[in-house]
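Researcher: Can you fold this with 4'-phosphopantetheine in place?
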Amino acid sequence: MTASLAICPGSFDPITLGHVDVIERARTLFERVIVAVGYNAAKTSLFDLDMRVELARASCHHIDGVSVEPVSGLLADFCRQQEANAIVKGLRGSADFDDELGMSLMNRKLSGLETVFIMGEPSYNHIASSLVKDVARHGGDVSGFVPEPVARALDGVFGRRA
Ligand code: PNS
């Protein structure tokens, strides 16, 4: 693939080690990757958009060719503006697939772009942003599940290191 750009979209509330692994592997397939931090209307966010972007940037700065941008409108419009070649998402299992199928078909209708799915690393299969937040909320140690800046932010919110 030449001069290729993938968009890795998500709500990233917050970004986890599983997300970072998918982004790193997307970067081996595409020359550039933009991590697009957006709103999922079906979810209530813990962190606001600016914070989710900041945490994603802090977690991806080590990956050459990867940048992080907020998306406040339609993902399909953002992809068109960026002249992206594909959307990339991670899949942990069939529940993820059920969520992703409709979005991938809608995004293809709206933008003409295909969504490429990367299978989540099995050793990260237990990691989901929602579960990580629940562990943090109840005082658990999340350092094995999220990048260090995210662990600090969660500890800040839920008081573990406050
Ligand atoms: O990590 P998530 O929650 O699966 O990410 C979902 C996200 C943010 C990528 C999706 O909700 C999205 O694209 N939101 C932007 C608005 C949009 O384009 N909605 C139509 C999606 S088909």
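Model: Folded with 4'-phosphopantetheine in place. Helices lie at 17-29, 49-60, 75-82, 94-111, 129-137, 148-158.
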